[in-house]
Amino acid sequence: DVSMQPAVAVWAPVFAFAYGIATAWAWQRLRHSPDRMSGAGASRRGIARYGVAAWLTAVFATAAILVAQRVVEHAEGLAALGQFTFAMALVQVPLTPISYAAPLLLRRWMERPGGAASRRWASKVFVPMIAVALLIWLIAPWWPDLGMGEAYAGATRALAVLLAGGAAEAVSRLLVVQASAIGRPWVGVKAEAARWGVLAIGWTLPLPNGLLTMC
After folding, report:
1. pTM surpassing 0.70?
2. Of the candidates 78, 89, 95, 87, which has an alpha carbon nearest to the alpha carbon of residue 137?
3. Can you list the residues of the chain whose pLDDT is less than 50?
């Protein structure tokens, strides 16, 4: 889209500068940390390894949503794209607290290794989200547009399907935190690569048209 090029040209350097400042500040703090004398090289390698893994995980996850939006727009049009994007935005609501809690859980699980805690958290998140997805699916005939008007007819069932996927996403995020806590940060990257593989297969199969199929 030509109309988006000026905005991208302006904001890309702004974000690059902002993240560059944050990186420089964090690096200076690490250089002057009290434990720098105990294996600084190993610490820096560890930071780089965890940082690259976390970056790739985030990039793959975000890119999956963006590519999915383009595929929905190409296959079903702008109306379906609006419904898909709206439903996807609502799915992020229960996922956001998990993202905020991840650093605290990482520290806690590093001090108390073992997967039992992460599995308990995963079950406590997964079951309620699946229950809510089922409830939303059941009320869809009476509330098909989520109260947004006729243009969003069908968004309720789209939300139910995406929320079911969001339940699995929540479990994945928690288990990735556990994997990082035990020194396996690349598990998250492998999980995102597996997601891309499933999406690629789904997009190439001769499936019927429709928003729910895309979801």
Report:
1. yes
2. 87
3. 36-41
